[in-house]
Amino acid sequence: MKTTINHIDKYNGKEVTIGAWLANKRSSGKIAFLQLRDGTGFIQGVVAKADVTEEIFQLAKSLTQESSVYITGTVVEDSRSPLGFELQVSNIELIHEAVDFPITPKEHGTEFLMDHRHLWLRSKKQHAIMKIRNQIIQATYEFFQKEGFLKIDPPILTGSAAEGTTELFHTKYFDEEAYLSQSGQLYMEAAAMAFGKVFSFGPTFRAEKSKTRRHLIEFWMIEPEMAFTTHEESLSIQENYVSYLVESVLENCDLELTILERDKDILRKIKAPFERISYDKAIDLLKEKGFTDIEWGEDFGAPHETAIADHFDRPVFITHYPKDIKAFYMKPDPNRPEVVECADLIAPEGYGEIIGGSARIDDLNLMQKRYEEHALTGDAYKWYLELRKYGSVPHAGFGLGLERTVAWISGVEHVRETIPFPRLLNRLYP
């Protein structure tokens, strides 16, 4: 019976055949232990000299790392195995012999591993991270479908900047100027005016010359937008969504979290509702914690976010930032127009902002004023202004960065390990 490692529990006591690669091996005299992987998981194959032909035993001992095989054996329970099973091997068919695989079991430097990212993905730790990433993506679709959201795909090539910044990748679009999208939000607002509740999931690009462990040049965003929705209602959706993601990973990726040595008790605490702290109180808290130079009106950096997060044991919303340090489309607080109805969700353990969201300006005159203040002239933003002209309604939305969220939930230090082929400031290979 041909099967895969992730379904091995269905065949206890039965003989199966698996197509696999040799991740590692060790042998001692009359027995060889093969660490096998097939893309769905890892399992140990035990080759006893007494149970196989001399030819098969010598093949087992001579197999090289990452050689591919069809391997046949009996599935047996083994409590010592993380999987709970191992394979008592009866036959090996060599498909391809790998020679001098560059990533050996010894320690390698990060740059070396990044140069061989196409091969590094095969390792147990990287496999676990990608499985958790996949689970978060699956849970995202589940959550928003259950909540009545429609999936809408915004364009990647745009004629304008979502947040009016200069950190854009410029390209020629035939005889026009174009940019790689830094956010699908503006288009999702248009979709929300057509469908009520929508979300997108796709790649975004920031030409930001940053080398921190939190930044990528190309990354993936989940961006919901909701018509007839207040800022507070949006915050409720956000915290329920993040709680759902964590719960889904805990339920479906226990083995992967174990491989990554993630503290699951910390994750079990992540349940809505989350704490909320205003920007004003965050400034006071930072001063109490020794950040005496921070002044009202300044944006928070990584050390500030970490200090605030450390004050709580779960994610925390920082709300009502000054309007001058936030995007042009954010709605001012009606009782205090110098701040906007927005929030950043800061993950604990030093992972920083994973969500940014706000109520959006729905008043045509105020949006026209914002256009003038930010010099958003010409036809590029005309369509966005028309959303306030034809049937404007209160609406709100947010964006969650997938890679930062994967890093936080899986406990990985650097976001470069949370995407299959990271694009960094000085890395476009492989």
Number of helices, where a helix is a run of at least 4 consecutive DSSP H or I residues: 13
Backbone CA Rg = 26 Å
Average pLDDT taken over every residue: 95
- Record the strand order, biggest sheet: 6-10-11-18-17-16-13-12
> What is the CATH architecture descriptor of the largest domain?
2-Layer Sandwich
Q: Structural class, from secondary structure content? A: alpha+beta
CATH C-level label of the largest domain: Alpha Beta
Total tally of structural domains: 2
Biggest pleated sheet? 8 strands, mixed
> What is the overall shape?
elongated
| CATH fold name of the largest domain | BirA Bifunctional Protein, domain 2
> What's the N-to-C terminus distance?
37 Å
* Helix content percent band: 25-40%
What proportion strand?
A: 25-35%
DSSP strand count: 18
Fourth-tier CATH superfamily name of the largest domain: Bira Bifunctional Protein, Domain 2
Unreliable stretches (pLDDT < 50, length at least 5) are: none
